[in-house]
Amino acid sequence: MAAEIERKFLILDDRWRQHACGGSVLRQAYLVSTKAQIVRVRTIDARRATLSVKIRTSRTRREEFEYDIPYADTCEMFQHARGIVEKTRYEVNHQGFVWEVDVYSGQNRGLIVAEIELDSCSDNPPLPEWLGPEVTGNPHFSNRALAKRRHIPAITTARFGLSLPLPASNTNPHISAPTEALAGISGSGRREDEEV
Fold this sequence. Notes:
Elements: E1 2-11, E2 20-33, E3 37-44, E4 48-56, E5 61-69, H1 71-77, E6 83-94, E7 97-104, E8 112-118, E9 131-134, H2 143-148, E10 156-157, E11 162-163
Antiparallel strand pairs: 1-5, 1-8, 1-9, 2-3, 2-6, 3-4, 4-5, 6-7, 7-8, 10-11
C-alpha cells in the first residue's frame, strides 16, 4: 500500500510544453466509483495495464493499491465500465519536483490539468508560472467525475482558453465513445458522487 497525496491545478498556458518529457496515452475504466472508493483499470500506450484500488482518507490523501494485470483482461473489463477517461500524460520537472500534466481528449478536448504527488500533506513545492487556479478537491475535476459524463457545467473562459462542448447523445456513452466530460449535478438533482 502507498499513500497518494496530490495537488491539482488548471494550466494557464503552454509554457509547460518546453520542459515536458515524452507522453503516455492513458485509458482508464472505472469499475467501482464512489466519492471515497475507486476500483479502476488503466491501459498505458495500448501495451500494458494496471488495476488500482483507491480509498480516500482526506481531501488530498488516498490509500492506493496498484497491480500489473494482463492487458487482455483489462480490455474485457472496459466492457463493464461505469465510465471511461482518455488522456495523454506528460512529465514536467520543475525545481526538483515532477509534475504530471494530463491533456484530455474527446468531449473535454482543451482541458489540461497538472498534478503533483507529494510525500506529505505539509509539502509546499514551488509552483511553476504556467499553473492556473488550484482545483484540488474540486469534484468537477476528478477523473472519477470526468468519466461519468452526467453533466458538464458551463465552463468557458478566455483566460484559460477552455471551452467544453456538451456530450453528444449516445445510448451507451461508456463503451462506444470512451471520452470524458466534467461532472457535477445530474438533471435529476443527484450529486455526481452518489451511488446509482
